[in-house]
Amino acid sequence: MRRGLPGVLMGVVMAVVLSGCIGSEQTVAKGDPDKNQGPTEAATPEYVFTYAENQAEDYPTTQGAYKFAELISQKTNGRILINVQAGGVLGDEKSVCEQLQFGGIDFMRMSLSPLAEFVPKLNVLQLPYLYRDADHMWQVLDGAIGKDFMNSFEGSNLVPLSWYDAGARNFYNSVRPIRRLEDMKGLKIRVQESEMMIGMVEALGASPAPMSYAEVYSALQTGAINGAENNWPSYESTSHYEVAKFYTIDEHNRVPELQLCSQPTWDKLSMADQETIKECALESAEYERMLWSERERKSEEKVRQAGCQIIELSPGEKQKFQDAVKPMYEKYCSDYMDIVDAIIDTGK
Predict the structure, then answer these.
(1) What PROSITE patterns does the annotation carry (predicted)?
(2) Which label site among 208, 282, 315, 321 has the fewest CB atoms less than 10 Å from its CB?
């Protein structure tokens, strides 16, 4: 939020600004502790903004946020500062997004699953088994189709800035290896509170159990659920691998994430500042993707060393999973089937 500097309150506000500066310097240090970052003669901050991130400090998306803050501080000579608040201290993604819409929070990183409630067209990008692999997804998002989605936020009070990687989501459970579609039957699988994710698990023959991600470990431990689905880093960092040792690589979803700015915050900025923020967002996205790739590798290695059973579906079995969810394409995205077809054909 913008901090004004009325003469009567100069002393108080300067204390706030100095506090913001200290927070920003700490934020920059976390982004890359081996570099001497920040301007040598910083201008008095004109803006001190807040960035909400629900992942831990060392998570790739959080480190991407710190890089974003660092770059903006550098390129504006400290005139624009961003304080990253990690670990979900500002609330869950949905409540933070609502605050973003009226300017209560300035920036955030958000998964497309809850974001699609605010921008329904985004449901297309989380259709199960939509992409052949990671390269296919980035060809789509970094090309004309991705730009078209970026232009779909009008009226949402949200400004999309850049795509972040969140890897591929896979199923894991505590009961048995999932090698065939039939192995899904009877399993109770935790999903995000998303109609599409619920529909996907039902289409595959399992029972969906929508619940907060924070509840999953104890629910697996007590048997309230049999499994869940997520990417390698999430499976490892939450220690879910300790209580659900069967991990099936089916890559049913590659759900990218978005850096977002509040429209009220965006409207305060000059066009030059808006361009700077866009440039920094894109640069931080490249950094986050690099970190994500390395984190995936380390997480998979740790899980394998812990003795978890990793299952890779045969091409024939994976096709059965894909066929089972195909009716969802028309059900959830009937108005956008031309886009779905364009995505499928990209890179062929």
Answers:
(1) PROKAR_LIPOPROTEIN (PS51257)
(2) 315
